[in-house]
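My hope is that you will study the record closing this message with an eye to the fold:
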Amino acid sequence: MAVLVKENSVYKIWPEDLLSGEEKLKEVYALNTEMNINKNIIRNNYIYTSYECIINSLICLSIIFLLSLLPINDHQLNHLAYSANESDRYINYKIIYTENSTIECHKINKDTLEEMVTDIISRSNDYIKTVEDASEIKIADKKHKIYIKFIKLGNRIIILNVQEGIHIQDN
């Protein structure tokens, strides 16, 4: 609004200009016409720029609105955060589950259980590296209350048994 008021000035012919000679009057008309054209160009540029900014803002708001409609739950956010945070120290093992390795797990769904096992193994990566290949490894995790028994073979970990709901007593 300030642009319309500030830049909306008109250069006019004053009565004293009419009293001056014909040549002087032509010069005043030419000068005032040129200044009015310049002011119109400036005002139009301001208005056009404002219009472009409003259009760009509406496009950005529309994109933000559409992105906010996408369903993202806590599980997906945690998984994304876990992937981003753990990618540099994540183990280079392929985790393979034997057929009956999770048969004793009934409370936790399979996907969540596998995520927990992956988390436990990645947190135990330093320990796992020290164990010889083809050795049986057992880990009891307080955080997830899970017991895992597995074998490390090169870059593979073969899960033999997973038990949930274990209680670990402090000594």
